[in-house]
Design goal:
By secondary structure, the protein is mainly beta. 15% of the residues lie in helices and 47% in strands. 22% of the residues are buried.
C-alpha cells in the first residue's frame, strides 16, 4: 500500500504537481504505542499550520504499565493561510496552489480538516516521530493521516501479512 502511494507521489512529483513538507519538529514517544488522536490547528500569532498528535501506550498498557498519553505539535512551515477562506494553501514549484486544510464549521466542534488531496504521514522509527505533509493537485485515496512504523509489533506483522495475502 505504501509503495503504491509512493509511486503515485513519484508520478505527481515528476510533473511538479506535488508538495512535500517535513516538519522541523520531532518527537520521541512509545516505540510500540499508537497515535490515538490528531487534529489541525492554526497558530493565531504566526498563521502556521500545526498538526497536534496524541500517542498512547494503550496497546500494551495493563496492571504493570499504566496507560499514558503524550501530545506533540508538528509545525509545517511554508504554507500560506488564506484568511478570507479560512484555508491553508501550499504552492508547487510552478506556483500552482494546492489547498491543504480548511475550517469546517461542524457544530459543536469546528476545526480544520485535511483536504482530499493532502495526507500527513507520521513516520515512527523506534519511537522517534517525524511528520511529513504530502499534497498533490489531485485527490488521493486512503486515509488523511497515515502512521508508518518500523517496529516488529504483532499489529505491524499482521498488517504486513494481510497486505501480502491481498496482492
Amino acid at each position: 500500500m505504501i509503495s503504491l502511494a509512493s509511486f503515485g507521489f513519484a508520478i505527481a512529483s515528476a510533473y511538479g504537481q506535488s508538495v512535500e513538507i517535513v516538519s522541523p519538529n520531532k518527537a520521541y514517544t512509545f516505540a510500540y504505542g499508537d497515535a490515538i488522536s490528531h487534529q489541525i490547528k492554526r497558530d493565531h500569532s504566526t498563521n502556521e499550520m500545526i498538526a497536534r498528535v496524541t500517542f498512547s501506550n494503550y496497546p500494551y498498557a495493563g496492571d504493570r504499565e499504566p496507560r499514558r498519553d503524550e501530545t506533540f505539535d508538528f509545525v509545517f512551515p511554508g504554507l500560506r493561510f488564506d484568511a478570507a477562506r479560512n484555508e491553508f494553501v501550499a504552492h508547487t514549484r510552478h506556483h500552482v496552489p494546492i489547498p491543504i486544510a480548511a475550517l469546517r464549521p461542524n457544530f459543536p466542534y469546528a476545526g480544520y480538516k485535511l483536504e482530499p488531496n493532502a495526507q500527513i504521514f507520521l513516520v515512527k522509527r523506534s519511537g522517534h516521530v517525524t511528520a511529513v505533509l504530502n499534497a498533490t493537485t489531485q485527490p488521493q485515496g486512503g486515509g488523511r493521516w497515515v502512521q508508518v512504523d518500523d517496529n516488529w509489533s504483532l499489529q505491524n506483522l499482521l498488517a504486513l501479512g494481510l497486505e501480502r495475502l491481498t496482492r
